[in-house]
Design brief:
Shape of chain C: globular
CATH architecture of chain C: 2-Layer Sandwich
Number of strands of chain C: 6
Strand content of chain C: 25-35%
Order of helices and strands of chain C: EEEHEEEH
Structural class of chain B: alpha+beta
CATH topology of chain C: Folate-binding fold
Radius of gyration of chain B: 38 Å
Helix content of chain B: 10-25%
CATH architecture of the largest domain in chain B: 3-Layer(bba) Sandwich
Number of domains of chain C: 1
Oligomer: heterotetramer
Strand content of chain B: 25-35%
CATH superfamily of the largest domain in chain B: FAD/NAD(P)-binding domain
Number of helices of chain B: 19
Number of strands of chain B: 51
Chain lengths: 188, 985, 95, 416
């Protein structure tokens, strides 16, 4: 085990939590990510390899699957984001690469993103002040990419109408957090 | 003051009295009042002054179309100029001040302008103020500017917050009058997602202002019941105080919700207003109609009002504009007004109706076939002069005159995509045309369906039809019986023959005479009329005046109104506070801030930060005792060159390129060759635009046969990625290449200087060979640090020193920089910022943003030979055009001042050693300059015509902005270690 | 504006970056004898019609796909949206 | 009829009965020496200078709608000569000098107001670029001053100095730049041209060119054929559509630029300010409205209207720069069609069709160019040689690789 100490995207030693009446905003620093892109002409092998790892089919455009230990969502044509717990899967990219072999291109993405989970009965009221996703139309696992606080973010539906995860580029975590908290203050 | 004109009834909350001030006087009103209704109830008719002549003006309307009653609301940072008294919801402690009046509203010195109105006609300015020439800017214009304008701002920062938001719906219904409510009930009961928006704080539209019954209920009661039902539907969102301000493409609407304008101070943290972007599948415009005035002599006197406004004040707000109110009309609405007034006990001395065959009215005298030809009263109306049908004149005493010239359907939003309204001869008005915004339909009075019964049925029907188009079935709903009177109107626009001016545009002081003058001078098209006279260009955008102006022009040209033209309306429907459109994206939050992995650490070191795009980067790290930034920067440079320095370079773009065709793909993207780059090696690459101009440079590191990591400049990371995706998807769609950005995933630090290797050896795990042989210049590889942390190592150098860049997962970046500092303590390691980075790259003659300025080619940059002629790459064909390969083309060279204490400035222009100094003999320009602590001299690099061949020549660098002209020697841009021995050490 | 993304359905055009005429897919062959002339026409000349226009949009704040959007320049009506990669292949582009 | 102080007094005292039409509405003649297509600022100015400086006897301007209804009637009124590249400098230098004399030349007050233009800079690199530009301006005979933060604060103390995301580090001040009452420019040139005998023919759309054996003989219009010795086209946003009738494809795309005006306010902003860290520029009209704008909408269009993202972007930038505008209301927005060229610079050139000349590609900078564009186009039409101030504005410059790219954005019109 190496001796470098990690910090969160908000540059703290532990994850930030903000609670409001009807909404909790929880920073998540415990997720590993790896992107997977199918190689040209080898889409089927890539899908089969990924399915063996995930225990589920690679999701269709705009969709995602939640699972243990792996979850996955579609991020672009022939491209997916796979996630798992960081503690147990710090080298998630190697695991995915092993599963798909030469049929897929895999890239470490864990620290490319910051993640905030928003949960509560007033989620919809806050989210509509932030971005244009239509929360009512989202089902479990669905992912929509949208502009939020002038950034391109992923909005991942974890529980319809109740809970989403928002991913933004890690370097802007402070601005995203500020935006989320201000919107929650404004509504709640 | 007392509420001398307050009546019984109305929809105000008499249990809640509120106190307010206007023009320094204190008044009382009730919750539910507007500022205008409360002032009228208090017997005040004078509310403002006009724009040009400062004529006394009173309220004309009861809505957002008001041209006259503009006030400055609130004080300090919350001061809001040009606010319509007719839509200001009264709250306790409200303070409003008149504007455009000095020293007071009642006595306005600028009213003297009115005396010179003979001079100040339309187009007056264009014909004069030209003599003498210099006087326009020095004398005339400042006077004009000062006299013009309306309200004023305080210049304090607005303390309130604004939000933005996004909504989705199947059907957006705009307006909650009878048609809007019928539509909302129809759509709501069908289960469709519905938004019902209305600008008023009380929904119901004209139902709240009329005494007409719906079934066995009053209109207001029926509306209240409908709203209550809608409020209980989870699929319906009721948005009062919400103006739909614009209809944009593909069903997108902009809306302003005034969340807390009706309180003195918004609740802490909550927005004053919200700007909503509404995504609708269908929209139904139920915006009603606006009554229009008739122009006659002195028709601008306070007390002259629209008849519908009089009914609103009377019925909704229980406020009589005066004790005696006469009527002037060309249709039956005037008569309805008289009946309502009489029912409320207000005296109606006469109904003046231009129609000779007008029906009689009970309880008052009808003057049929008569016209109002004048008014009198100093700051408010006291009487009107009437020309009777028999030609005789008669004076009628009254404190207010209710005027009705008919109704204009509220077509504004139908025009926002340049739709053109059509003329309806029966209504004598424009109705929505056939070229509506896609997805929009219109119902009720906005469509010309002026009776209440028509409004209800067209609203219900319109909703059902709109929903059917998107596959939602809505059943018909039961509608109450309602008034269904036919239109009875004689088109009549202005009274001719009056002695005084007849006002068309009340706010901008445009008269019938001005329209005539425009016609006389051939400004006959609607566009010319509007621009020449300023008709319709005031804060009301001509809602009550455009039609009138058009009608007068039609009369003059002898054409029909539709032949004369139509006026179309542009967004926004009513003016929108800029704060609302800005939302929270202001001040420090204008753009997101990107922070580097070492940001917290750098803050602890007291770093000075600078903006690089959205990034904040450490610019330099001052040490105790350093009083000038140059001291810090010189120290950072020297210490790096003498020992070792560390710099966070995470901001450079990083793109992961994988696939069997990755090398072939990069060969297309870069001007130079990449196909044969060995695994474990890095190469510098230059990217061209298709036009042959260089736009970015960086490195590509080959980690495997099918895996590269490309770096870009900080500024162009997004652009390079976009261009690569374009090439991948659109130009070479069958290449096996996959791309993803990894800029943020890795914290990357440059470790530079003679001791860089020694330092890194203490941090990189010992199993990795960092010797010059084991890890030579331009090597790359995966390593581990600090006992097993994954890392990437690149031996590349921007500074020209022995240097590496080391990357770890971003979460460990903070720890890594601390570790590097600790490990480097024995070498006196320094952190260095962008400033030292810049100095060192100028010392090495590396091009950066100032050189890659979008107009320079590889040839200009001295890299012409890098552009491969043996392969296809983006930009190589067009880079061969003759104009880009001329003999005296600009070439990148270096400059040193001849006198060593002189300073070269970036942005200086280059001139030959002797001769003229001007643009015609310009030889080039200095792009970047710095003080080199190594050379102990100012140095610069830049582009010089045929520069390659001019090394050793003495030329002049001129900076006339600073009155500077110095002699410089043309030298190689590689000031330090031109052979590159240090970086290979 | 709303763009009906072939994979993701209606998306706000604000999520996209606009490039221009879809003819930019038809990059000339660098080996042609008249390559310079062809590249000139390709890069600089435009039909710029006041009617239907096929154009390239990039879903930058979305799934990163390039789309060919057929849009009327007078009314902004969008009648067709295709993945640019499919269009490129159909127009004979390969590696 | 000349406008004079005496005349004003006389008319005021006699009920303004003596004012004559500012221009006539003649029926088209069968043939003119030169027909100008397009009754905007550039077309009218061209006709005026043809008649006045080149003594061309028979000139007509044909306009499909009403004169001055295009970009000269909907712009943000700014005039300036702050160009960097030698292809542009002499032209805009000439134009600004012509603005300075315009009122006397036209006997019409277009309210040229040299109130100064300040381009703010927010980074060291921007300051370097501003210095290069400022020096280029001075070397070309124009005026420029480089201000530091304090210099900017003295002029505009109300800008956001304290809480800015992108701090103001200075600015390039061009004192001779300013604003002009835009509509008056069209009317002034129209009246001036009309007084010199030019026929201004409104509501007359050109439907085709009559070209025989490579020579243009005139124009087919909705009012019939009009013969011409030479035809000059100056139709801005409609350039591609009109020139397509002559079989030409142009290095031009049409884009919409939105502009905005606020409600009237007592004077607050004396000059013109442009933001260097966002899309926003602003001045205040003599009438009191703040006139402001930002970036174009980015997509090709002929619809004279824009969409919300740009409106919001412009206002966000505006409030970030001038927080005190929070409660000022945006009154009206409009969109104009810009003939965006491939390098952001215009064309004044002959075409391959004998007798057919083209003036266009002005992007969103056409208004300030009006006098020089008219003069240089008139010169070309009258003499068949380019005016020395407009020599670089050739249609073949992309073929030869001699782009005039002030912004360095390459062949992407929406970025210029």
């Amino acid at each position: 085990m190496h001796s470098l100490k990690s910090i969160t995207a908000l540059a703290a030693s532990s994850a930030q939590v903000d609670s409001f009446d009807g909404l909790t905003i929880q920073e998540r620093a415990d997720c590993a990510f790896a992107s997977l892109a199918a190689r040209r002409g080898e889409e089927a092998q890539c899908a089969a390899g990924a399915q063996a790892l995930l225990g589920a089919e690679l999701p269709a455009p705009g969709k995602g699957v939640l699972g243990e230990p792996y979850s996955c969502f579609w991020m672009g044509a022939d491209q997916w984001m796979i996630s798992a717990g960081y503690a147990a899967h710090e080298t998630l990219d190697s695991e995915v690469k092993e599963a798909v072999g030469a049929a897929g291109s895999v890239t470490e993405q864990s620290d490319g993103w910051c993640r905030f989970d928003l949960e509560g009965a007033r989620l919809g009221d806050v989210l509509e002040r932030l971005c244009n996703v239509d929360l009512l139309a989202m089902q479990v696992g669905d992912v929509s990419r949208s502009r939020l606080e002038h950034m391109a973010c992923f909005i991942w539906c974890l529980e319809p109408g109740q809970k989403v995860a928002i991913y933004a580029p890690r370097s802007s975590a402070g601005s995203l957090h500020h935006g989320l908290v201000e919107a929650a203050h404004s509504v709640l | 003051m007392t509420e001398v004109n307050r009546l019984d009834g109305g929809q105000i909350n008499r249990a809640k009295e509120v106190s307010f001030t206007f023009d320094g006087h204190r008044y009382k009103g009730y919750e539910g009042d507007t500022l205008a209704s409360a002032l009228l109830a208090n017997g005040e008719r004078l509310m403002g002054r006009s724009f040009k002549y400062h004529r006394p003006r009173g309220v004309l309307t009861a809505g957002s179309e008001e041209p006259n009653a503009l006030v400055e609301l609130r004080k300090g940072g919350r001061q809001e100029p040009n606010t319509r008294a007719t839509v200001i919801e009264l709250f306790d402690g409200l303070e409003a001040a008149p504007q455009n009046a000095w020293p007071s509203l009642r006595f306005d010195a600028m009213a003297v302008n009115d005396r010179f109105s003979n001079f100040l006609t339309a187009g007056f300015y264009y014909k004069t103020f030209m003599w003498p020439k210099a006087f326009w800017e020095k004398i005339y214009e400042p006077i004009i500017r000062k006299a013009a304008g309306l309200g004023s701002i305080s210049f304090e920062e607005d303390p309130d917050l604004y939000d933005k938001g996004f909504l989705h719906c199947d059907l957006l219904i705009i307006g909650s009058g009878p048609s809007g409510l019928a539509a909302a009930l129809t759509a709501g009961r069908s289960g469709a997602r519905v938004i019902l928006a209305d600008e008023d704080f009380r929904m119901g539209g004209r139902l709240n202002s009329e005494t007409l019954a719906l079934g066995d209920q009053s209109g207001a009661d029926w509306a209240a019941a409908a709203i209550a039902e809608l409020a209980d539907m989870p699929n319906v969102r009721l948005m009062s105080r919400t103006t739909i301000v614009g209809a944009f493409d593909h069903g997108t609407y902009g809306a302003v919700e005034r969340v807390q304008d009706h309180v003195a101070v918004p609740q802490e943290g909550k927005p004053r207003q919200i700007f909503w972007r509404i995504y609708s599948r269908r929209a139904l415009l139920c915006a009603g109609a606006m009554e229009r005035p008739i122009a006659f002599a002195d028709n601008d006197r306070p007390g002259v009002m629209l008849a519908s406004a009089v009914r609103s004040y009377l019925n909704r707000w229980a406020a009589a504009p005066a004790q005696e109110i006469a009527i002037f009309t060309n249709n039956d609405d005037g008569h309805r007004t008289a009946a309502d007034l009489i029912a409320k006990g207000v005296s109606v001395p006469a109904v003046i109706d231009v129609r000779a065959d007008a029906p009689s009215v009970a309880g008052t005298e009808l003057l049929a076939g008569a016209e109002v030809i004048g008014t009198s009263g100093r700051l408010g109306l006291s009487s009107v002069t009437v020309r009777l049908a028999n030609g005789q004149t008669r004076k009628v005493n009254c404190g207010a005159l209710a005027v009705s010239g008919g109704w204009n359907p509220n077509v504004h939003l139908t025009c926002h995509q340049r739709g053109r309204p059509q003329w309806d001869a029966d209504l004598a008005a424009f109705v929505p045309g056939t070229d509506l915004p896609v997805g929009m339909s219109v119902a009720g009075a906005a469509m010309g369906q002026l009776s209440t019964a028509q409004a209800l049925s067209s609203g219900a029907c319109g909703a059902a039809t709109a929903l059917e188009a998107i596959g939602i079935t809505a059943s018909a709903i039961d509608l109450p019986e309602a008034e269904d009177a036919p239109i009875s109107l004689k088109p009549f626009w202005h009274v001719s023959g009056g002695k005084s001016r007849a006002w068309v545009d009340l706010q901008n002081d445009v008269t019938v005479k001005d329209v005539k003058l425009a016609h006389q001078e051939n400004f006959v098209s609607v566009e010319h009329l509007k621009r020449y006279t300023t008709l319709g260009m005031a804060t009301d955008q001509g809602k009550t005046s455009n039609m009138l102006g058009l009608a007068v022009m039609a009369e003059l040209t002898g054409k029909s109104i539709p032949e004369t033209g139509t006026t179309i309306f542009r967004p926004p429907y009513t003016p929108v506070a800029m704060g609302t459109l800005a939302g929270r994206a202001t001040g420090k939050h204008f753009h997101p801030t990107r922070k580097t992995p070492s940001h917290r650490w750098a803050e602890e070191q007291g770093a000075v930060f600078t903006e690089v795009g959205d990034w904040l980067r450490a610019q330099w790290f001052p040490k105790a005792g350093e009083t000038h930034w140059r001291q810090s920067v010189d120290r950072e440079v020297l210490q790096t060159r003498n020992s070792v320095g560390v710099c966070d370079v995470t901001t450079l773009g990083k793109i992961d390129v994988q696939g069997k065709d990755a090398a072939a793909f990069l060969n297309k993207m870069y001007a130079n060759a990449f196909a044969k780059l060995p695994v474990g090696k890095v190469r510098y690459g230059l990217m061209l635009r298709e036009d042959g101009i260089a736009y970015d440079d960086g490195t590509a590191a080959r980690f495997a046969e099918d895996h590269f990591v490309v770096t870009t400049t900080t500024a162009n990371a997004v652009l390079v990625y976009r261009n690569m995706e374009f090439a991948r998807q659109c130009l070479f769609p069958d290449m096996d290449v996959q791309l993803i950005s990894t800029t943020e995933a890795w914290a990357q630090f440059a470790v530079a200087g003679p001791n860089a290797r020694k330092l890194l050896q203490k941090v990189v795990d010992p199993e990795f060979d960092l010797s010059n042989e084991g890890f030579p210049f331009m090597a790359c590889g995966e390593v581990t640090v600090a006992g097993g942390c994954r890392a990437r190592l690149f031996r590349i150098s921007f500074s020209g020193e022995l240097a590496y860049e080391i990357a770890v997962p971003t979460r460990y970046g903070d720890a890594l920089v601390r570790r590097l500092m600790e490990a480097g303590e024995e070498f006196g390691v320094v952190p260095y910022g962008t400033e030292a980075l810049g100095v060192m790259r100028i010392e090495k003659g590396h091009a950066a943003g100032n050189e890659l300025n979008g107009t320079t080619s590889a040839l200009n940059l001295g890299m012409g030979r890098m552009v491969s002629k043996k392969k296809d790459c983006i930009g190589n064909t067009l880079s061969e055009r003759e104009g880009m390969n001329e003999e005296d083309a600009l070439k990148l060279v270096g400059f040193r001042p001849v006198k060593s204490d002189e300073t070269i400035s970036a942005g200086a222009h280059l001139m030959n050693a002797s001769g003229a100094v001007n643009a015609k003999v310009d030889q080039g320009y200095v792009t970047s300059a710095a003080y080199s602590p190594v050379l102990e001299s100012s140095i610069g690099i830049g582009f010089l015509k045929n520069g390659d061949a001019r090394k050793g020549e003495i030329i002049r660098a001129v900076n006339p902005l600073a009155g500077q002209e110095i002699q410089v020697e043309v030298v190689s841009a590689h000031f330090v270690d031109p052979e590159g021995e240090r970086l290979r050490a | 504006m709303m763009i009906d993304h072939p994979l993701l359905g209606l998306r706000d055009a604000q999520e996209f970056t606009y490039l221009g005429d879809a003819s930019l897919i038809d990059r000339p062959d660098w080996r042609s004898d008249t390559a310079q002339e062809e590249f000139h026409d390709y890069l600089y000349l435009r039909d710029n019609p006041a009617g239907e226009h096929r154009e390239l949009w990039y879903h930058e704040a979305g799934d990163r796909s390039w789309l060919v959007v057929t849009r009327n320049m007078l009314t902004h009506e969008i009648t067709q949206v295709e993945l640019a990669r499919d269009v490129a292949r159909a127009r004979g582009r390969s590696k | 009829m000349a406008y004079s102080g005496l005349r004003i007094i006389k008319e005021a005292l006699t009920g303004h009965k003596g004012w004559r039409p500012a221009w006539r509405d003649p029926a088209p003649k069968a043939h003119y020496d030169i027909v100008i297509v397009g009754g905007g600022g550039h077309g009218l100015a061209t006709a005026f200078y043809l008649a006045k400086r080149y003594q061309t006897a028979k000139v007509a301007v044909v306009e499909k709608g009403w004169i001055g209804g295009g970009n000269v009637g909907r712009n943000t009124t700014i005039v300036r000569s702050n160009y960097l590249l030698d292809g542009n400098q002499p032209f805009y230098n000439l134009s600004l000098r012509m603005w300075e004399d315009l009122e006397q030349e036209l006997n019409y007050n277009a309210m040229v107001s040299q109130r100064g233009i300040l381009n703010l800079v927010h980074t060291d690199a921007q300051r370097d670029a501003a210095r290069r530009r400022g020096n280029a301006m001075i070397l070309a005979g124009d005026d420029a001053e480089l201000l530091d933060t304090e210099g900017v604060r003295e002029l505009y103390p109300f800008l956001n100095f304290e809480n800015a995301r992108f701090p103001i580090k200075g600015g390039l001040l061009h004192r001779r730049g300013g604003t002009v009452r835009h509509d008056a420019v069209a009317w002034g040139y129209a009246r001036g041209a009309d007084r010199l005998g030019v026929d201004i023919i409104q509501n007359c759309e050109v439907t085709d060119f009559r070209i025989e054996q490579g020579k243009c003989l005139g124009v087919e219009t909705t009012k019939g054929f009009i013969g011409a010795g030479k035809v000059g086209v100056a139709v801005a946003g409609s350039s591609s559509r009109v020139m397509a009738k002559a079989g030409m494809r142009l290095p031009i795309e049409s884009h919409v630029l939105q502009a905005f005006v606020s409600e009237g306010l007592k004077p607050i902003i004396p000059g013109v300010i442009t933001y260097g860290a966002g899309h926003f520029y602003c001045s205040q009209s003599d009438k009191g409205g703040l006139v402001f704008g930002g970036d174009i909408d980015m997509y090709n269009t002929y619809a004279q209207r824009g969409n919300l993202p740009v409106i919001e972007d412009v206002v966000e930038s505006g409030i970030s720069l001038i927080p005190a505008l929070g409660r000022v209301r945006l009154l009206r927005s409009w969109g104009g069609i810009m003939d965006m060229s491939m390098d952001g610079s215009p064309f004044i050139d002959r075409t391959q069709v004998d007798g057919l000349y083209f003036n266009g590609g002005w992007c969103y900078g056409g208004f300030k160019a009006t006098p020089a564009s008219g003069l240089c186009f008139a010169h070309l039409l009258a003499t068949d040689t380019p005016h020395e101030a407009a020599q670089a504005y050739r249609l073949d410059r992309f073929r030869t690789g001699r782009m005039i790219d002030e912004k360095g954005q390459g062949a992407q019109p929406n970025l210029h």
